[in-house]
Amino acid sequence: MTDTDTDTTTSDPAVRVENLSVMYRTTFEKVPTFKSALRRVGRGKREVHEVKALTDVSFEVDHGTSIGIIGSNGAGKSSLMRAIAGILPPSEGRIEVHGRVSTLLALGVGFNRKLSGRENVILGGLAAGMTHAELNERYDEIAEFAELGEFIDMPMRTYSSGMYSRLAFSVAVHLNPDILLIDEALSTGDAKFKQKAARKMREVADNAGTMFLVSHSMRSIKRLCSQCLWLHKGQVMMQGEPEEVIAAYSKFLEVGEDAFTLDDM
Amino acid sequence: MNATRLDEEFTSSVHIYEPHRNGLPRLRPYFKALWQRKPFATEMSRASIRADNVNTFFGQIWQVLNPLFLACVYFLLVMIIRGRGNSFDANVERFVHLCAGLFVYHIFFAGCVRQGASSVVGGGKLLLNMSFPRLLLPLAEVRTAFVKFLPTLVVFFVILLGFGRPLHWEVIIAPAFFLMLGMFAAGMAMIFATMQVYFRDIGSFLPYMVRIWLYMSPILWYPDDPINTLNDAGIPEWVLHANPLYSMVGGWSELLVQGHIPEASWWIAASSWSVVALVTGALFFMSREREFAVRL
Ligand SMILES: Nc1ncnc2c1ncn2[C@@H]1O[C@H](COP(=O)(O)OP(=O)(O)OP(=O)(O)O)[C@@H](O)[C@H]1O
Ligand SMILES: [Mg+2]
After folding, report:
1. Which domain holds residue A135?
2. In chain A, which among 142-171 make CB contacts under 8 A with chain B?
3. Which strands sit side by side in the sheet containing A101-104, from one edge to the other?
4. Distance from CA of A241 to the nearest CA of B (A)
Protein backbone atom coordinates (compact mmCIF):
# COMPACT_ATOMS: atom_id res chain seq x y z
CA MET A 1 0.00 0.00 0.00
CA THR A 2 2.99 2.26 -0.06
CA ASP A 3 2.97 2.94 -3.76
CA THR A 4 5.34 5.72 -4.47
CA ASP A 5 5.11 7.43 -7.79
CA THR A 6 8.36 7.49 -9.62
CA ASP A 7 9.14 7.86 -13.27
CA THR A 8 9.52 4.63 -15.08
CA THR A 9 12.63 4.65 -17.15
CA THR A 10 13.40 1.79 -19.45
CA SER A 11 16.64 1.06 -17.67
CA ASP A 12 14.78 0.06 -14.52
CA PRO A 13 14.60 -3.64 -13.86
CA ALA A 14 11.16 -5.21 -13.45
CA VAL A 15 11.85 -6.13 -9.86
CA ARG A 16 14.65 -4.92 -7.65
CA VAL A 17 15.04 -6.44 -4.23
CA GLU A 18 17.55 -4.89 -1.86
CA ASN A 19 18.61 -6.44 1.44
CA LEU A 20 15.15 -7.81 1.97
CA SER A 21 14.26 -9.50 5.23
CA VAL A 22 10.82 -10.83 6.00
CA MET A 23 9.72 -11.91 9.41
CA TYR A 24 6.63 -13.79 10.49
CA ARG A 25 5.39 -13.22 14.00
CA THR A 26 3.57 -16.07 15.56
CA THR A 27 2.75 -17.08 19.05
CA PHE A 28 3.58 -20.48 20.40
CA GLU A 29 -0.07 -21.20 20.96
CA LYS A 30 -1.92 -22.66 18.06
CA VAL A 31 -4.09 -19.59 17.96
CA PRO A 32 -3.47 -16.36 19.86
CA THR A 33 -6.26 -15.77 22.34
CA PHE A 34 -7.21 -13.12 24.82
CA LYS A 35 -7.23 -15.72 27.56
CA SER A 36 -3.67 -16.78 26.92
CA ALA A 37 -2.61 -13.14 26.60
CA LEU A 38 -3.99 -12.48 30.07
CA ARG A 39 -2.24 -15.52 31.41
CA ARG A 40 0.99 -14.39 29.81
CA VAL A 41 0.66 -10.92 31.31
CA GLY A 42 0.13 -12.65 34.63
CA ARG A 43 3.45 -14.39 34.20
CA GLY A 44 5.04 -11.26 32.81
CA LYS A 45 6.13 -12.98 29.62
CA ARG A 46 5.77 -12.20 25.96
CA GLU A 47 5.74 -15.27 23.85
CA VAL A 48 6.05 -13.90 20.38
CA HIS A 49 7.99 -16.22 18.19
CA GLU A 50 9.70 -14.60 15.27
CA VAL A 51 10.29 -16.70 12.20
CA LYS A 52 12.76 -15.19 9.81
CA ALA A 53 11.59 -16.36 6.42
CA LEU A 54 14.04 -14.27 4.37
CA THR A 55 17.35 -12.74 5.42
CA ASP A 56 19.19 -10.10 3.48
CA VAL A 57 18.03 -11.13 0.03
CA SER A 58 19.14 -8.96 -2.89
CA PHE A 59 18.65 -9.50 -6.60
CA GLU A 60 17.38 -7.84 -9.73
CA VAL A 61 15.20 -9.18 -12.47
CA ASP A 62 14.99 -7.45 -15.83
CA HIS A 63 11.87 -7.00 -17.90
CA GLY A 64 11.12 -10.01 -20.05
CA THR A 65 13.03 -12.46 -17.93
CA SER A 66 11.46 -15.61 -16.68
CA ILE A 67 13.14 -16.60 -13.49
CA GLY A 68 12.82 -19.88 -11.68
CA ILE A 69 12.99 -20.00 -7.90
CA ILE A 70 14.20 -23.24 -6.35
CA GLY A 71 15.01 -24.38 -2.87
CA SER A 72 13.97 -26.92 -0.31
CA ASN A 73 10.76 -26.79 1.71
CA GLY A 74 10.68 -23.79 4.01
CA ALA A 75 13.43 -22.01 2.09
CA GLY A 76 11.28 -18.89 1.80
CA LYS A 77 10.14 -19.13 -1.81
CA SER A 78 6.48 -18.47 -1.13
CA SER A 79 7.39 -15.71 1.29
CA LEU A 80 9.48 -14.03 -1.38
CA MET A 81 6.56 -14.16 -3.82
CA ARG A 82 4.23 -12.66 -1.23
CA ALA A 83 6.68 -9.88 -0.50
CA ILE A 84 6.97 -9.02 -4.20
CA ALA A 85 3.20 -8.98 -4.50
CA GLY A 86 3.06 -6.48 -1.67
CA ILE A 87 1.21 -8.79 0.68
CA LEU A 88 3.93 -9.34 3.24
CA PRO A 89 5.56 -6.14 4.46
CA PRO A 90 9.37 -6.34 4.53
CA SER A 91 10.85 -6.06 7.99
CA GLU A 92 14.04 -4.69 6.46
CA GLY A 93 15.18 -3.70 3.02
CA ARG A 94 13.25 -2.56 0.03
CA ILE A 95 11.42 -3.94 -2.97
CA GLU A 96 10.81 -2.03 -6.16
CA VAL A 97 8.33 -3.40 -8.62
CA HIS A 98 7.84 -1.85 -12.04
CA GLY A 99 4.67 -3.11 -13.62
CA ARG A 100 1.37 -4.73 -12.87
CA VAL A 101 1.64 -7.85 -10.79
CA SER A 102 -0.62 -10.84 -10.93
CA THR A 103 -0.20 -13.43 -8.28
CA LEU A 104 -0.74 -17.11 -8.40
CA LEU A 105 0.42 -18.16 -5.02
CA ALA A 106 0.19 -21.70 -3.76
CA LEU A 107 -3.18 -23.31 -4.18
CA GLY A 108 -6.60 -21.87 -3.75
CA VAL A 109 -5.73 -18.31 -4.62
CA GLY A 110 -7.98 -16.43 -2.25
CA PHE A 111 -10.78 -18.71 -3.06
CA ASN A 112 -13.86 -19.12 -0.93
CA ARG A 113 -14.81 -22.76 -0.94
CA LYS A 114 -18.50 -22.15 -0.36
CA LEU A 115 -18.83 -20.22 -3.59
CA SER A 116 -18.87 -21.52 -7.13
CA GLY A 117 -15.91 -21.35 -9.46
CA ARG A 118 -17.61 -18.58 -11.42
CA GLU A 119 -18.14 -16.45 -8.32
CA ASN A 120 -14.57 -17.00 -7.25
CA VAL A 121 -13.25 -15.91 -10.62
CA ILE A 122 -15.31 -12.73 -10.41
CA LEU A 123 -14.25 -12.04 -6.82
CA GLY A 124 -10.60 -12.73 -7.56
CA GLY A 125 -10.68 -10.41 -10.55
CA LEU A 126 -12.43 -7.64 -8.67
CA ALA A 127 -10.00 -7.93 -5.76
CA ALA A 128 -7.18 -7.59 -8.25
CA GLY A 129 -8.77 -4.36 -9.42
CA MET A 130 -10.48 -5.37 -12.64
CA THR A 131 -13.83 -3.93 -13.59
CA HIS A 132 -17.00 -5.91 -14.18
CA ALA A 133 -16.80 -5.05 -17.88
CA GLU A 134 -13.26 -6.38 -18.22
CA LEU A 135 -14.19 -9.51 -16.33
CA ASN A 136 -17.24 -10.23 -18.45
CA GLU A 137 -15.07 -9.83 -21.48
CA ARG A 138 -12.48 -12.28 -20.23
CA TYR A 139 -14.64 -14.66 -18.25
CA ASP A 140 -15.33 -17.03 -21.14
CA GLU A 141 -11.66 -17.23 -21.96
CA ILE A 142 -10.82 -18.05 -18.35
CA ALA A 143 -13.52 -20.70 -18.06
CA GLU A 144 -12.58 -22.23 -21.37
CA PHE A 145 -8.91 -22.42 -20.51
CA ALA A 146 -9.63 -24.08 -17.18
CA GLU A 147 -11.78 -26.73 -18.91
CA LEU A 148 -13.91 -27.42 -15.90
CA GLY A 149 -17.14 -27.94 -17.81
CA GLU A 150 -20.21 -27.73 -15.63
CA PHE A 151 -18.08 -27.71 -12.47
CA ILE A 152 -17.47 -24.02 -13.01
CA ASP A 153 -20.90 -23.40 -11.47
CA MET A 154 -20.48 -25.82 -8.57
CA PRO A 155 -19.23 -24.80 -5.13
CA MET A 156 -15.47 -25.03 -4.99
CA ARG A 157 -15.56 -27.43 -2.07
CA THR A 158 -16.58 -30.07 -4.63
CA TYR A 159 -13.38 -29.50 -6.62
CA SER A 160 -10.40 -31.76 -6.68
CA SER A 161 -7.08 -30.09 -5.98
CA GLY A 162 -6.16 -30.32 -9.64
CA MET A 163 -9.33 -28.52 -10.60
CA TYR A 164 -8.49 -25.86 -8.07
CA SER A 165 -5.12 -25.21 -9.58
CA ARG A 166 -6.48 -25.19 -13.11
CA LEU A 167 -8.86 -22.41 -12.26
CA ALA A 168 -6.26 -20.51 -10.25
CA PHE A 169 -3.77 -20.72 -13.08
CA SER A 170 -6.33 -19.72 -15.63
CA VAL A 171 -7.31 -16.62 -13.68
CA ALA A 172 -3.74 -15.51 -13.10
CA VAL A 173 -2.61 -15.73 -16.71
CA HIS A 174 -5.71 -14.00 -17.98
CA LEU A 175 -5.27 -10.94 -15.81
CA ASN A 176 -2.72 -9.81 -18.43
CA PRO A 177 -0.07 -8.94 -15.89
CA ASP A 178 3.31 -7.43 -16.62
CA ILE A 179 4.75 -9.61 -13.92
CA LEU A 180 3.36 -13.06 -13.32
CA LEU A 181 4.09 -14.82 -10.06
CA ILE A 182 3.45 -18.55 -10.07
CA ASP A 183 3.94 -20.62 -6.97
CA GLU A 184 3.77 -24.36 -7.47
CA ALA A 185 0.40 -24.00 -9.08
CA LEU A 186 0.88 -26.91 -11.39
CA SER A 187 1.99 -29.59 -9.06
CA THR A 188 -1.44 -31.17 -9.04
CA GLY A 189 -2.51 -30.60 -12.63
CA ASP A 190 -2.73 -33.62 -14.93
CA ALA A 191 -0.28 -34.19 -17.75
CA LYS A 192 -2.50 -32.64 -20.39
CA PHE A 193 -3.13 -29.49 -18.42
CA LYS A 194 0.53 -29.16 -17.49
CA GLN A 195 1.43 -29.15 -21.16
CA LYS A 196 -1.19 -26.57 -21.92
CA ALA A 197 -0.11 -24.44 -18.97
CA ALA A 198 3.51 -24.72 -20.00
CA ARG A 199 2.61 -23.48 -23.47
CA LYS A 200 0.72 -20.58 -21.95
CA MET A 201 3.66 -19.68 -19.73
CA ARG A 202 5.95 -19.79 -22.74
CA GLU A 203 3.56 -17.44 -24.44
CA VAL A 204 3.72 -15.05 -21.51
CA ALA A 205 7.49 -15.32 -21.49
CA ASP A 206 7.68 -14.76 -25.24
CA ASN A 207 5.49 -11.68 -25.03
CA ALA A 208 8.30 -10.11 -23.07
CA GLY A 209 6.39 -10.57 -19.86
CA THR A 210 8.28 -11.15 -16.66
CA MET A 211 7.60 -14.37 -14.86
CA PHE A 212 8.57 -15.79 -11.49
CA LEU A 213 8.12 -19.53 -11.34
CA VAL A 214 8.45 -21.35 -8.06
CA SER A 215 8.72 -25.05 -8.66
CA HIS A 216 10.21 -28.21 -7.30
CA SER A 217 10.41 -29.60 -10.78
CA MET A 218 13.85 -28.87 -12.18
CA ARG A 219 12.74 -29.90 -15.64
CA SER A 220 10.08 -27.25 -15.92
CA ILE A 221 12.48 -24.62 -14.65
CA LYS A 222 14.99 -25.63 -17.31
CA ARG A 223 12.33 -25.60 -19.99
CA LEU A 224 10.67 -22.33 -19.09
CA CYS A 225 13.16 -20.11 -17.41
CA SER A 226 16.09 -18.12 -18.63
CA GLN A 227 17.38 -17.51 -15.13
CA CYS A 228 17.30 -19.28 -11.84
CA LEU A 229 17.53 -18.26 -8.21
CA TRP A 230 18.33 -20.73 -5.47
CA LEU A 231 17.14 -19.94 -1.99
CA HIS A 232 18.24 -21.79 1.10
CA LYS A 233 17.01 -21.03 4.60
CA GLY A 234 15.95 -17.58 3.57
CA GLN A 235 19.18 -16.65 1.83
CA VAL A 236 20.20 -16.47 -1.80
CA MET A 237 22.67 -19.21 -2.52
CA MET A 238 23.09 -18.60 -6.21
CA GLN A 239 21.61 -16.77 -9.16
CA GLY A 240 22.40 -17.49 -12.79
CA GLU A 241 21.82 -19.83 -15.70
CA PRO A 242 19.24 -22.51 -14.83
CA GLU A 243 21.61 -25.34 -15.84
CA GLU A 244 24.38 -24.16 -13.56
CA VAL A 245 22.20 -23.31 -10.60
CA ILE A 246 20.29 -26.54 -10.80
CA ALA A 247 23.50 -28.53 -11.07
CA ALA A 248 24.85 -26.82 -7.97
CA TYR A 249 21.57 -27.31 -6.15
CA SER A 250 21.44 -30.99 -7.00
CA LYS A 251 24.99 -31.44 -5.89
CA PHE A 252 24.17 -29.63 -2.70
CA LEU A 253 21.35 -32.02 -2.05
CA GLU A 254 23.65 -34.92 -2.85
CA VAL A 255 20.97 -36.38 -4.98
CA GLY A 256 21.51 -37.21 -8.61
CA GLU A 257 19.56 -35.20 -11.16
CA ASP A 258 17.64 -38.34 -11.99
CA ALA A 259 15.52 -37.88 -8.90
CA PHE A 260 14.01 -34.81 -10.48
CA THR A 261 13.36 -36.04 -13.97
CA LEU A 262 10.60 -38.26 -12.66
CA ASP A 263 8.30 -35.38 -11.83
CA ASP A 264 7.86 -33.66 -15.12
CA MET A 265 6.43 -30.45 -13.70
CA MET B 1 -1.21 -3.53 -3.96
CA ASN B 2 -1.83 -5.56 -7.02
CA ALA B 3 -1.36 -3.09 -9.74
CA THR B 4 -3.87 -3.43 -12.48
CA ARG B 5 -5.04 -1.19 -15.21
CA LEU B 6 -7.71 0.35 -13.01
CA ASP B 7 -5.20 1.91 -10.68
CA GLU B 8 -3.00 3.17 -13.42
CA GLU B 9 -4.81 6.40 -14.04
CA PHE B 10 -3.99 7.44 -10.52
CA THR B 11 -0.83 5.71 -9.45
CA SER B 12 1.94 4.84 -11.78
CA SER B 13 2.72 1.20 -12.04
CA VAL B 14 5.76 1.50 -9.84
CA HIS B 15 5.44 0.08 -6.38
CA ILE B 16 7.93 0.36 -3.61
CA TYR B 17 7.56 -1.67 -0.49
CA GLU B 18 9.53 -0.74 2.55
CA PRO B 19 9.53 -1.79 6.19
CA HIS B 20 6.47 -0.63 7.94
CA ARG B 21 6.15 0.68 11.40
CA ASN B 22 2.66 0.51 12.74
CA GLY B 23 2.00 3.58 10.66
CA LEU B 24 -0.86 4.47 8.41
CA PRO B 25 -0.67 3.88 4.67
CA ARG B 26 -0.81 7.01 2.58
CA LEU B 27 -4.45 7.94 2.81
CA ARG B 28 -5.24 9.37 -0.61
CA PRO B 29 -4.10 6.40 -2.70
CA TYR B 30 -5.57 4.09 -0.10
CA PHE B 31 -9.04 5.55 -0.31
CA LYS B 32 -8.82 5.81 -4.08
CA ALA B 33 -8.04 2.12 -4.28
CA LEU B 34 -10.78 1.43 -1.76
CA TRP B 35 -13.27 3.33 -3.84
CA GLN B 36 -12.21 1.64 -7.05
CA ARG B 37 -12.58 -1.79 -5.54
CA LYS B 38 -16.00 -1.10 -4.13
CA PRO B 39 -17.45 -3.62 -6.61
CA PHE B 40 -15.37 -6.26 -4.88
CA ALA B 41 -17.01 -5.57 -1.51
CA THR B 42 -20.44 -5.53 -3.13
CA GLU B 43 -19.82 -8.80 -4.92
CA MET B 44 -18.32 -10.36 -1.80
CA SER B 45 -21.40 -9.49 0.20
CA ARG B 46 -23.76 -10.62 -2.56
CA ALA B 47 -21.99 -13.93 -2.89
CA SER B 48 -22.08 -14.59 0.84
CA ILE B 49 -25.78 -13.79 0.99
CA ARG B 50 -26.36 -16.15 -1.91
CA ALA B 51 -24.33 -18.86 -0.20
CA ASP B 52 -26.25 -18.33 3.03
CA ASN B 53 -29.68 -18.97 1.67
CA VAL B 54 -29.03 -21.48 -1.02
CA ASN B 55 -32.52 -22.74 -0.39
CA THR B 56 -33.99 -19.43 -1.44
CA PHE B 57 -37.67 -19.80 -0.55
CA PHE B 58 -37.16 -21.04 2.99
CA GLY B 59 -34.11 -18.85 3.30
CA GLN B 60 -36.32 -15.83 2.70
CA ILE B 61 -39.05 -17.09 5.03
CA TRP B 62 -36.43 -17.59 7.70
CA GLN B 63 -35.21 -14.02 7.31
CA VAL B 64 -38.71 -12.94 8.31
CA LEU B 65 -39.57 -15.61 10.88
CA ASN B 66 -36.34 -15.32 12.82
CA PRO B 67 -36.83 -11.70 13.95
CA LEU B 68 -40.51 -12.40 14.67
CA PHE B 69 -39.69 -15.29 17.00
CA LEU B 70 -37.03 -13.16 18.59
CA ALA B 71 -39.47 -10.32 19.21
CA CYS B 72 -42.02 -12.70 20.70
CA VAL B 73 -39.48 -14.28 23.03
CA TYR B 74 -38.28 -10.92 24.31
CA PHE B 75 -41.82 -9.63 24.63
CA LEU B 76 -42.69 -12.63 26.77
CA LEU B 77 -39.62 -11.94 28.86
CA VAL B 78 -40.64 -8.32 29.42
CA MET B 79 -44.19 -9.38 30.30
CA ILE B 80 -42.98 -11.91 32.84
CA ILE B 81 -40.57 -9.52 34.49
CA ARG B 82 -42.95 -6.54 34.64
CA GLY B 83 -46.03 -8.55 35.46
CA ARG B 84 -49.25 -8.00 33.56
CA GLY B 85 -51.83 -5.41 34.29
CA ASN B 86 -51.19 -2.96 31.48
CA SER B 87 -53.87 -2.02 29.03
CA PHE B 88 -53.92 -3.74 25.65
CA ASP B 89 -52.86 -0.53 23.94
CA ALA B 90 -49.86 -0.08 26.20
CA ASN B 91 -48.80 -3.65 25.50
CA VAL B 92 -49.13 -3.15 21.77
CA GLU B 93 -47.07 0.00 21.95
CA ARG B 94 -44.40 -1.81 23.92
CA PHE B 95 -44.34 -4.67 21.44
CA VAL B 96 -44.02 -2.33 18.46
CA HIS B 97 -41.27 -0.37 20.20
CA LEU B 98 -39.51 -3.63 20.98
CA CYS B 99 -39.71 -4.74 17.35
CA ALA B 100 -38.32 -1.43 16.11
CA GLY B 101 -35.33 -1.59 18.44
CA LEU B 102 -34.75 -5.31 18.33
CA PHE B 103 -34.70 -5.62 14.55
CA VAL B 104 -32.28 -2.79 14.02
CA TYR B 105 -30.12 -3.91 16.92
CA HIS B 106 -30.12 -7.65 16.54
CA ILE B 107 -30.24 -8.05 12.79
CA PHE B 108 -28.30 -4.98 11.68
CA PHE B 109 -25.99 -3.80 14.44
CA ALA B 110 -25.15 -7.16 15.99
CA GLY B 111 -24.82 -8.63 12.48
CA CYS B 112 -22.26 -5.98 11.56
CA VAL B 113 -20.28 -6.53 14.73
CA ARG B 114 -20.38 -10.32 14.70
CA GLN B 115 -19.73 -10.88 11.01
CA GLY B 116 -17.41 -7.91 10.76
CA ALA B 117 -15.28 -9.25 13.59
CA SER B 118 -14.60 -12.49 11.77
CA SER B 119 -14.22 -10.92 8.33
CA VAL B 120 -10.45 -10.58 8.45
CA VAL B 121 -9.61 -13.82 10.21
CA GLY B 122 -12.10 -15.64 8.00
CA GLY B 123 -10.56 -14.04 4.92
CA GLY B 124 -7.57 -16.40 5.25
CA LYS B 125 -6.40 -17.30 1.78
CA LEU B 126 -7.72 -14.13 0.26
CA LEU B 127 -5.52 -12.09 2.57
CA LEU B 128 -2.45 -14.22 2.06
CA ASN B 129 -2.65 -14.31 -1.69
CA MET B 130 -4.16 -11.04 -2.81
CA SER B 131 -3.29 -7.51 -2.02
CA PHE B 132 -6.14 -4.99 -1.74
CA PRO B 133 -7.35 -2.48 0.84
CA ARG B 134 -8.40 -4.78 3.66
CA LEU B 135 -10.98 -2.30 4.88
CA LEU B 136 -13.22 -3.73 2.17
CA LEU B 137 -13.71 -6.90 4.21
CA PRO B 138 -15.54 -5.42 7.23
CA LEU B 139 -17.36 -3.00 4.93
CA ALA B 140 -18.69 -5.92 2.89
CA GLU B 141 -20.12 -7.35 6.09
CA VAL B 142 -21.84 -4.06 6.87
CA ARG B 143 -23.51 -4.25 3.50
CA THR B 144 -24.51 -7.87 4.14
CA ALA B 145 -26.06 -6.95 7.48
CA PHE B 146 -27.94 -4.09 5.84
CA VAL B 147 -29.39 -6.32 3.13
CA LYS B 148 -30.46 -8.84 5.76
CA PHE B 149 -32.05 -6.05 7.76
CA LEU B 150 -34.26 -4.78 4.91
CA PRO B 151 -36.88 -7.57 5.02
CA THR B 152 -37.30 -7.06 8.77
CA LEU B 153 -38.16 -3.44 8.07
CA VAL B 154 -41.09 -4.68 6.01
CA VAL B 155 -42.07 -7.00 8.86
CA PHE B 156 -41.93 -4.05 11.22
CA PHE B 157 -44.28 -1.90 9.16
CA VAL B 158 -46.70 -4.81 8.79
CA ILE B 159 -46.73 -5.16 12.57
CA LEU B 160 -47.07 -1.42 13.08
CA LEU B 161 -50.04 -1.07 10.75
CA GLY B 162 -51.49 -4.48 11.61
CA PHE B 163 -51.90 -3.40 15.23
CA GLY B 164 -53.55 -0.24 14.05
CA ARG B 165 -50.77 2.10 15.10
CA PRO B 166 -50.58 5.33 13.14
CA LEU B 167 -47.84 5.97 10.59
CA HIS B 168 -46.29 9.32 11.49
CA TRP B 169 -44.72 11.60 8.90
CA GLU B 170 -41.64 11.80 11.15
CA VAL B 171 -40.72 8.34 9.88
CA ILE B 172 -38.89 10.04 7.04
CA ILE B 173 -36.36 11.44 9.52
CA ALA B 174 -35.59 7.98 10.92
CA PRO B 175 -33.02 7.12 8.20
CA ALA B 176 -30.79 9.84 9.66
CA PHE B 177 -30.55 7.85 12.88
CA PHE B 178 -30.10 4.66 10.92
CA LEU B 179 -27.22 6.22 9.02
CA MET B 180 -25.52 7.23 12.26
CA LEU B 181 -26.03 3.74 13.61
CA GLY B 182 -24.56 2.33 10.40
CA MET B 183 -21.44 4.46 10.74
CA PHE B 184 -21.10 3.43 14.35
CA ALA B 185 -21.58 -0.23 13.44
CA ALA B 186 -18.96 0.02 10.68
CA GLY B 187 -16.48 1.48 13.16
CA MET B 188 -17.20 -1.31 15.64
CA ALA B 189 -16.84 -3.94 12.91
CA MET B 190 -13.40 -2.56 12.01
CA ILE B 191 -12.24 -2.44 15.63
CA PHE B 192 -13.37 -5.98 16.39
CA ALA B 193 -12.02 -7.30 13.09
CA THR B 194 -8.58 -5.95 14.00
CA MET B 195 -8.77 -7.23 17.54
CA GLN B 196 -9.73 -10.69 16.41
CA VAL B 197 -6.47 -10.97 14.48
CA TYR B 198 -4.60 -10.56 17.75
CA PHE B 199 -7.03 -12.40 20.01
CA ARG B 200 -8.88 -15.20 18.29
CA ASP B 201 -11.23 -15.77 21.19
CA ILE B 202 -12.85 -12.34 20.86
CA GLY B 203 -15.44 -14.23 18.83
CA SER B 204 -16.52 -16.18 21.89
CA PHE B 205 -16.84 -13.04 24.03
CA LEU B 206 -18.89 -11.20 21.46
CA PRO B 207 -22.23 -12.99 22.05
CA TYR B 208 -22.12 -11.94 25.72
CA MET B 209 -21.23 -8.41 24.83
CA VAL B 210 -24.01 -8.26 22.27
CA ARG B 211 -26.48 -9.61 24.81
CA ILE B 212 -25.48 -7.16 27.55
CA TRP B 213 -25.47 -4.24 25.17
CA LEU B 214 -28.98 -5.23 24.15
CA TYR B 215 -30.19 -5.05 27.76
CA MET B 216 -28.45 -1.73 28.28
CA SER B 217 -30.05 -0.11 25.24
CA PRO B 218 -33.59 1.23 25.10
CA ILE B 219 -35.08 -1.81 23.42
CA LEU B 220 -36.71 -3.81 26.20
CA TRP B 221 -37.40 -0.53 28.01
CA TYR B 222 -38.39 2.97 26.88
CA PRO B 223 -35.76 5.70 26.65
CA ASP B 224 -37.70 7.69 29.25
CA ASP B 225 -37.85 4.88 31.81
CA PRO B 226 -34.57 5.52 33.63
CA ILE B 227 -34.92 9.31 33.76
CA ASN B 228 -36.97 9.48 36.97
CA THR B 229 -34.65 7.11 38.76
CA LEU B 230 -31.68 9.19 37.66
CA ASN B 231 -33.29 12.42 38.80
CA ASP B 232 -34.09 10.94 42.18
CA ALA B 233 -30.52 9.85 42.60
CA GLY B 234 -29.29 13.26 41.49
CA ILE B 235 -27.40 11.90 38.49
CA PRO B 236 -27.46 14.14 35.40
CA GLU B 237 -29.40 12.76 32.45
CA TRP B 238 -26.51 12.97 30.03
CA VAL B 239 -24.88 9.86 31.53
CA LEU B 240 -27.40 7.92 29.46
CA HIS B 241 -25.49 9.03 26.38
CA ALA B 242 -22.42 7.20 27.60
CA ASN B 243 -24.05 4.32 25.75
CA PRO B 244 -23.89 5.35 22.08
CA LEU B 245 -26.84 3.13 21.30
CA TYR B 246 -29.09 5.00 23.75
CA SER B 247 -29.55 7.88 21.33
CA MET B 248 -29.20 5.88 18.11
CA VAL B 249 -31.57 3.01 18.77
CA GLY B 250 -33.75 5.18 21.01
CA GLY B 251 -34.05 7.88 18.38
CA TRP B 252 -34.85 5.35 15.68
CA SER B 253 -37.69 3.86 17.70
CA GLU B 254 -39.02 7.23 18.91
CA LEU B 255 -39.33 8.38 15.30
CA LEU B 256 -40.87 5.17 13.97
CA VAL B 257 -43.26 4.38 16.80
CA GLN B 258 -44.09 7.69 18.49
CA GLY B 259 -43.39 10.05 15.64
CA HIS B 260 -41.45 12.09 18.15
CA ILE B 261 -38.41 14.01 16.94
CA PRO B 262 -35.55 13.56 19.42
CA GLU B 263 -34.17 16.64 21.11
CA ALA B 264 -30.91 18.27 20.07
CA SER B 265 -28.77 16.52 22.68
CA TRP B 266 -29.69 13.17 21.10
CA TRP B 267 -28.61 14.34 17.68
CA ILE B 268 -25.35 15.65 19.04
CA ALA B 269 -24.62 12.48 21.01
CA ALA B 270 -25.50 10.14 18.14
CA SER B 271 -23.58 12.03 15.48
CA SER B 272 -20.46 12.50 17.59
CA TRP B 273 -20.40 8.87 18.64
CA SER B 274 -20.83 7.66 15.08
CA VAL B 275 -18.10 9.89 13.65
CA VAL B 276 -15.70 9.06 16.47
CA ALA B 277 -16.33 5.32 16.11
CA LEU B 278 -15.95 5.33 12.34
CA VAL B 279 -12.76 7.41 12.30
CA THR B 280 -11.16 5.55 15.20
CA GLY B 281 -12.15 2.18 13.77
CA ALA B 282 -10.85 2.99 10.30
CA LEU B 283 -7.55 4.42 11.56
CA PHE B 284 -6.99 1.55 13.97
CA PHE B 285 -7.72 -1.00 11.25
CA MET B 286 -5.58 0.70 8.62
CA SER B 287 -2.62 1.15 10.92
CA ARG B 288 -2.62 -2.59 11.56
CA GLU B 289 -3.77 -4.04 8.31
CA ARG B 290 -0.36 -4.54 6.77
CA GLU B 291 0.47 -6.79 9.64
CA PHE B 292 -2.54 -9.04 9.10
CA ALA B 293 -0.79 -11.20 6.51
CA VAL B 294 2.06 -12.08 8.87
CA ARG B 295 -0.28 -12.74 11.76
CA LEU B 296 -2.79 -15.05 10.17
N1 LIG C 1 2.09 -17.88 8.13
C2 LIG C 1 3.30 -18.16 8.64
N3 LIG C 1 3.56 -17.93 9.95
C4 LIG C 1 4.77 -18.19 10.47
N5 LIG C 1 5.79 -18.68 9.78
C6 LIG C 1 5.62 -18.95 8.47
C7 LIG C 1 4.35 -18.71 7.83
N8 LIG C 1 4.47 -19.06 6.53
C9 LIG C 1 5.73 -19.51 6.37
N10 LIG C 1 6.43 -19.44 7.52
C11 LIG C 1 7.86 -19.81 7.74
O12 LIG C 1 8.63 -19.10 6.82
C13 LIG C 1 9.65 -19.92 6.27
C14 LIG C 1 9.58 -19.89 4.76
O15 LIG C 1 8.33 -20.44 4.34
P16 LIG C 1 7.86 -20.47 2.84
O17 LIG C 1 6.44 -20.84 2.81
O18 LIG C 1 8.25 -19.19 2.20
O19 LIG C 1 8.74 -21.64 2.24
P20 LIG C 1 8.73 -22.25 0.77
O21 LIG C 1 10.09 -22.05 0.24
O22 LIG C 1 7.61 -21.72 -0.01
O23 LIG C 1 8.52 -23.79 1.08
P24 LIG C 1 7.75 -24.89 0.19
O25 LIG C 1 8.71 -25.40 -0.79
O26 LIG C 1 7.40 -25.95 1.20
O27 LIG C 1 6.56 -24.25 -0.39
C28 LIG C 1 9.45 -21.28 6.88
O29 LIG C 1 10.42 -21.44 7.91
C30 LIG C 1 8.09 -21.27 7.46
O31 LIG C 1 8.07 -22.00 8.66
MG1 LIG D 1 5.75 -22.52 -0.80
Report:
1. 107-162
2. 155
3. A101-104, A179-183, A210-214, A66-70, A227-232, A235-240
4. 27
Residue boundaries of the structural domains of chain B: 63-295
This model of the complex carries an ipTM of: 0.72
B176-185 pLDDT, tens digit per residue, is 999 999 999 9
Coil/strand/helix, residue B115: helix
| 8 Å CB contact of B126 and A131 | no
B37 and A8 within 8 Å at the Cβ level: the answer is no
Is A179 part of any domain? no
Q: Is residue A236 part of a domain?
A: no
Taking the C-alpha atoms of residue A36 and residue A42, their distance in angstroms, rounded to an integer, is 10
Rounded CA-CA distance B259/B266 in Å is 15
pLDDT the model gives residue A110: 52
Single out the residue of A89, A53, A33, A28 nearest to residue B287, CA to CA: A89
Phi-psi region of A106 (alpha: psi -120 to 50; beta: other; left: phi over 0): left
The rounded distance, in Å, linking the Cα atoms of A155 and B191 is: 31
Q: What pLDDT is stored for residue B181 in this prediction? A: 95
A56-110 pLDDT, tens digit per residue, is 899 988 888 889 999 888 888 888 888 888 788 888 888 888 876 666 554 445 5
Pairwise CA distance, residues A200 & A132, whole Å = 24
pLDDT in tens, A211-257: 888 888 888 888 888 899 999 888 888 899 989 999 888 888 875 54
Beta bridge pairs of residue A238: A230
Residue at A234 is within a domain: no
Q: How far is the CA of A128 from the centre of ligand 1 (A)?
A: 24
pTM of the shown model: 0.81
* pLDDT, tens digit, 9 for 90 and up, residues B230-248: 888 888 888 888 999 999 9
Nearest-CB residue to B19 (from A86, A89, A175): A89
Our count of domains for chain A comes to 1
* Amino acid letter for position B98: L
Q: Is the CB of A259 under 6 A from ligand 1?
A: no
CA distance A43 to chain B (A): 18
Q: What is the pLDDT of chain B when averaged over all its residues?
A: 85
What confidence category does residue A208 fall into, taking pLDDT thresholds of 50, 70 and 90? low
